[in-house]
Amino acid sequence: MTNGLRLLTGAAVLAVFLLGPWQSQARATDLTARQVTDRLFRANPAAPPDFSNMDLRELDLSGLNFKGAALRGSDLFGADLSGADLSKTDLSNARLDRVILIGARLDGANLSGATMLRPSAFSSLSATVGEASSFAGANLSGTTLADADLSYTLLAFSNLRGSDLSRAVLKNADLTRADLTGADLTSADLTGVRGLETALGLESTRNFKKAIR
Question: Residue 80 in contact with residue 55, Cβ under 8 Å?
Fold first, then answer.
């Protein structure tokens, strides 16, 4: 082997070694958007699809009906869920950071223990009621919603026990009969919130007095 070839081989090995961590982070998702769509199309109520613990990052899943699918522990970072119907899905412990939720329905969904950091809920900087998501009756206990813009969001009868709503924007949201027991409301914006007087557990929330009203 010539000296030049040895140097080239050594450089190649070094490049693989140095790039290894970045290559692992850029791995392909477990399914493509088309494969997810096909599974949902073939699914029926008696056998809801199971996407638990799958890597579904940054997929365009807008407008899909998830038919009560299991998404436990799935990674949906940056996925587009605009107009998707996720009602009664199991999203417990899922990663929903940076997802696009314009007009999405999550009524009755289980999001306990999930993270939803900085979701995109509106198409512009001005929140509008027509683009708001719906979480009516959803289980959001222990969910991280810090800094989330939940303006106009329907959260009536939802379970928000122990959730992190610090710095969340809840302008004109509907919290009718929502359970806020133990929730963190530090610097949350509750301006114009509907049904706040009917919410459960307000006396046990963290820093309710520091919330913006």
Answer: no
